[in-house]
Design goal:
With about 200 residues, the chain is of the alpha+beta class. The protein has four helices and eight strands. The protein has helices at about 15-25, 35-55, 150-165, 180-185; strands at about 1-5, 60-65, 75, 85-90, 100, 105-110, 115-120, 130-140. The strands form two sheets. Strands 1-2-8-4-5 form a five-stranded antiparallel beta sheet, with no helix packed on it. Helix 1 crosses helix 3 (about 150-165) and helix 2 crosses helix 3 (about 150-165). It comes from Roseovarius mucosus.
């Protein structure tokens, strides 16, 4: 399985002003925006870290997902949540020929933690040996910062501030997550089943 982020979070969606206020940076100076690229990088790193820990896409964007076999042909759990819409489903064979599946044959079962690609009939289309199913979808809580749940938005700012404060410290262990951030995101974490195969 391979998940690819097809579109990036636009700069306009990032809460630069909120982050500056959170850091208590001075305003009203001619060079107010001199740190913007650095702050943007910490916000993007924080978003990525929290999305990785929770399996939740915070700001809406498009993804493509390639899967070589369905875990369950009556319904395949999607790799991230929340999924807003299915955009397309195609079957690619070993000759690199793609069959686009009519959207009337599948549907999205929405769920905050485990959205599922469901067949309209009994089973999802058969993936031939050596072939792959390519699913395109749009996921995220919304397009703007105000669409995020308040606790997740706060966690992003707190973690970005942590990265900013310790930007020169190389002694932190990998995967370090401050307690306050970890507690805010805990309820969004998905329990993985079947050795990590289902979400």
């Amino acid at each position: 399985m391979m998940l690819i982020e097809e579109t990036a979070v636009p700069l306009a969606a990032l809460p630069l002003a909120e982050f500056k206020a959170h850091l208590r940076l001075g305003t009203g100076f001619a060079d107010d925006d001199i740190q913007d690229p650095v702050l943007e990088s910490f916000l993007r790193a924080s978003l990525a870290a929290i999305e990785g820990r929770t399996g939740k896409v915070l700001l809406e964007r498009e993804f493509s997902w390639a899967v070589h076999h369905w875990r369950d042909a009556t319904g395949q759990a999607l790799p991230v949540a929340p999924v807003r819409a299915l955009l397309s489903l195609g079957l690619r064979n070993r000759a690199d020929e793609v069959e686009v599946i009519d959207p009337a044959h599948y549907r999205l079962e929405q769920d905050v933690h485990r959205p599922v690609l469901r067949p309209v009939g009994t089973f999802l289309p058969v993936i031939v040996r050596g072939g792959v199913a390519e699913v395109r979808f749009r996921a995220g809580f919304g397009v703007g910062w105000g669409d995020l749940p308040a606790d997740l938005a706060q966690a992003v700012l707190m973690l970005a501030a942590h990265y900013y404060e310790y930007r020169h410290d190389l002694s932190l262990s990998s995967g370090c997550m401050p307690f306050g951030v970890a507690s805010l995101i805990e309820r969004y974490r998905t329990v993985r089943l079947l050795g990590g195969g289902a979400r």
